[in-house]
Amino acid sequence: MGDVTLVVVAGTTETAAIDGISAAGADPDLRVHTPSADLEIVASGRPGPGSPVPVSPGGCPTPAVVTRAVRELLGPESLPVAFVDAGLGAPTAAATRGVGAAPGGDVRDPEPVPGAATVFERARSLAPALAASGSGDDAGGDGATELLVAETIPGGTTTALGVLTALGERAAVSSSLPANPIERKRRVVAEGLDASGLDPGGAAGDPIEAVRLAGDPVLAAVAGLLVGCADAGIDVTLAGGTQLAAAAALARHAGVDRRLPLATTSLVADDPTADLPALAGDLDLALAAADPGFAEGDHPALAAYARGEAKEGVGMGGALALADRARVTDAAVRDRIAAVTDRLLAERRASDGSGDAEPDGSTPTDGGDRR
């Protein structure tokens, strides 16, 4: 399969609290813990003490479940992980590397990411160390030749739309919700650009300005990593959807012209409101979309993914691509996703003293999720 390290860049933005743009906004008290819990689930298979099991109001578990399922199938030593704290709003039990990021502000603020330049440059400098060491929880091996870069940040599709608009790129993104509230997001972004005194396309050629005035700290960090990989000749694949495409746009506007693969899910690639194939074409990204056949499973979690909830995130598409590369069958992937979900929820019910599993196998909603 080759040497690959999964790098998950995690953070928060106050944009997630805006009504009607993200499933993550359903429970503000739990939403801030979602990225921290995602890292814990990918690293060790369970959230740390005090972290929720991130589940959407519709019963869809975090995409971290899919990424963890693939790590278990491949063997964690075959897919080492490294985590970057790009503005986490709650502590995490997972080991992280810092880039000097604070949680992002509301995209409607005049300057939602005042530290964008610092985050970008520190992430840029971090790229060679991540590739050389494959560092992170239970990472191993003699180093990685490729970084698989992913994100987790509730509300991130709206800030991605802000960055794309500021750069003058195609203004379309996906959503964690089955029905994408894209027009609502566009209105929010327009309000933010007005507050920042920035016209659409006004930050073309200036990616740090685009993030500072219209983005989030995760985008600053991912863009910095991409530029750092280009500087050092490190192979990199973007493991995600429109948020990672927005990070690629930032890298393009920073002068990166090398090949950039984008590994996502068919749930995003086939979403006409996201228009990802067109955006990937604009940015010269090599798009690949994985489909493990969620609709063929009979587990509630698989049905929730098939409905179009939590279409991407936490490296979901990239992890599925690695499973396919390793010739792991779709049925095995689906079975392991179901097993990881059941294990997480059973452990949480036991720790909460809330009794046995629901007789119909339904998935309770312990926390707000996603983008």
Description:
The chain has 371 residues and is α/β, with parallel strands linked by helices. It has a single domain (4-134, 143-348), classed as Nicotinate-nucleotide-dimethylbenzimidazole phosphoribosyltransferase (CobT), large domain (Rossmann fold, 3-Layer(aba) Sandwich). The chain is 43% helix and 10% strand. It is built from 14 helices and 7 strands. Helix 2 (34-44) packs parallel to helix 3, helix 3 packs parallel to helix 13 (316-325) and helix 8 packs across helix 9. The protein is globular. It comes from Halorubrum tropicale.
Got a strand count?
7
| Shape-level CATH architecture | 3-Layer(aba) Sandwich
Give the structural class. alpha/beta
* End-to-end separation: 30 Å
Basic shape: globular
Question: Poorly predicted ranges (pLDDT <50, ≥5 residues)?
Answer: 135-144, 356-370
CATH superfamily: Nicotinate-nucleotide-dimethylbenzimidazole phosphoribosyltransferase (CobT), large domain
> In what range is the share of β-strand residues?
5-15%
Q: CATH fold name, please?
A: Rossmann fold
Q: Please tell me the total number of domains.
A: 1
Q: Which strands sit side by side, in order, in the main sheet?
A: 3-2-1-4-5-6-7
Family: Belongs to the UPF0284 family.
InterPro entries: Nict_dMeBzImd_PRibTrfase_arc (IPR002805), Nict_dMeBzImd_PRibTrfase_sf (IPR036087)
Protein name: UPF0284 protein AMR74_09790
GO molecular function, one term: nicotinate-nucleotide-dimethylbenzimidazole phosphoribosyltransferase activity
